């Protein structure tokens, strides 16, 4: 096992435009670029989460069957301290949401989509 695998969870997202994905995740959601091999690939991290952003020419995208190449329904789940403040900040940046705020016994959440349509769930736990 490599040092990167120690305590880090990696998720691969197939994206149309790697630079647009980098800009989205770093400018709006607090990720940091670890590696960028444009235009094919980049990986960005936030805490123990590593997103592998695979563009059309990357091996990850080329290995993905064509019937599974569209953005998925499984969102990355990011915990935020103040959901309302995050929604306001992201709307001010010109981003739109894919759902309304949903409230349940575990907390409140809303869905955002990256430029390729991959879902990100912003979640604030119930107190």
UniProtKB/TrEMBL annotation:
Family matches, as InterPro entries: Glyas_Bleomycin-R_OHBP_Dase (IPR029068), Glyas_Fos-R_dOase_dom (IPR004360), MMCE/EMCE_epimerase (IPR051785), VOC_core (IPR037523)
Domain of life where this protein originates: Bacteria
Sequence ranges assigned to domain VOC in this UniProt record: 7-125
Alphabetic keyword roster: Metal-binding
UniProt keyword annotation of Metal-binding present: yes
Keyword Metal-binding: yes
Pfam families in UniProt: Glyoxalase (PF00903)
Protein name in the entry: VOC family protein
Species lineage: Bacteria, Bacillati, Actinomycetota, Actinomycetes, Propionibacteriales
